[in-house]
Amino acid sequence: MARLILASSSPRRQEILKSLRASFEIITSNADESVNCNMPPEEIVMTLAERKAQTVAKENHDAFVIGADTIVVYNDRILGKPADRDDAKQMLMMLSGNTHAVFTGTCILHGNDKEIFYEKTEVSFWELAEAEIDRYIRTGEPLDKAGSYGIQGYGAILVKSIHGDFYSVVGLPVAKLYRALKKMGYPT
């Protein structure tokens, strides 16, 4: 049986990948995540996804290795994981009542074969009262997530609408991933 490896410690990506009903291993990547922030967002996420996959694939050349990276972009500004609660509040206040983009890059490496792609999803937030933002921050949920929210958790109450792939916002565009794995010969 072909080995499938997720080069990520993200519990959200692991849950999404389980939906494929394929057994997989988790090997956390220690890739350098520094990039030129002047690159377009889609290039940033694909570059980082490929780096993550490459660091794991070096020792697992025979496996199908999946790397992924997600960023939130609002007004050409990349919103990563917040430094602290104040940073999370600033991000959420900025996103309140506005539409932002979530980019997820995915790279699959298998031997000398490579599939790399990205998804862009637009997410619109309701107008949020400061008390709502404070209550959400107290849950602790936004502190380890790009853009300071998790659409799959309590943060779902912030979201007015999305245009694009929900799972990409969570961290892994599973339908596109499935098709890419199939194209590469992974037994689906």
Any idea what the CATH architecture is? Alpha-Beta Complex
What's the domain count?
A: 1
CATH topology category name: Maf protein
CATH hierarchy, class: Alpha Beta
In percent, how helical is the residue content?
25-40%
Describe the structure.
The chain has six helices and seven strands; from the N terminus they run βαβαββαββαβαα. By secondary structure, it is α/β, with parallel strands linked by helices. The chain has one domain (4-183): Alpha-Beta Complex (Maf protein). Strands 1, 2, 3, 4, 5, 6 and 7 form a seven-stranded mixed β-sheet that branches. It is elongated, with a radius of gyration of 17 Å. The N and C termini lie close together (11 Å). The relative contact order is 0.18. The mean pLDDT is 94.
